[in-house]
Every structure is written in C-alpha cells, then in structure tokens.
Design goal:
mainly alpha; 2 domains; flat
C-alpha cells in the first residue's frame, strides 16, 4: 500500500492530467449526437493502429527471455489488430447503408 501512495505522490502531475482527460472526454462525448457515435467510434478504432505499432516496438526492444513483455506485447498486437479490423468493418457496413440499391 505504501508503494501505491508513494507512486501517486511522485507522479501527482501525471495522475492529475489523466483525471482531467477523463472529465474532458466524458464532456466531449456527452455532447455528440447519438447519430454520430458509430462513425466516431469506428474511426477511433481505426486509430488503434498506433497501439499495434507501439506494441511491436516494445516487443522488438525487449529481451527474448522476458516472457511477460513478449506475452503482453502479443496480446496488445492481437487486440489492437482486432480493434482496427473491427473499426473498418463497421465503417464499411455504415457506408453500405448509404449506397443506392441497384434495380
């Protein structure tokens, strides 16, 4: 417990910024009309390519004997890739709704 308290004391600025980001994010998303939630979320999922690249960089810079870093990196790459693919699938399905039907 002392380690957690010490972490918050040392990183007080970072914790404060994260809390502010959460409040700002909730306010911004709360003001978005329901019609726009799906396009915004599909675009946000596609941005998770940054997570995939970051996980690959972490895996490349870790030792081959560090199984924890390799395992977490693999999970991050897998889940990030699934999120990116899901974002594009949702976007594609949305765009299909706006195409005119052929007779």
């Amino acid at each position: 417990m002392n380690e957690i308290i010490e972490f918050f004391k040392v990183h007080q600025d970072m914790v404060f910024i994260v809390v502010l980001m959460v409040f700002v994010g909730v306010e911004v998303i709360g003001k978005v009309p329901a019609v726009l939630h799906t396009p915004l979320m599909s675009g946000a999922n596609a941005i998770h390519g940054v997570v995939v690249v970051g996980a690959i960089i972490v895996m490349l810079n870790s030792k081959s004997s560090d199984y924890l870093a390799m395992g977490l990196g693999f999970v991050a790459v897998f889940l990030g890739t699934m999120n990116v693919v899901g974002g594009f699938v949702v976007t594609d399905r949305m765009l299909e709704m706006f195409k005119k039907k052929k007779k």
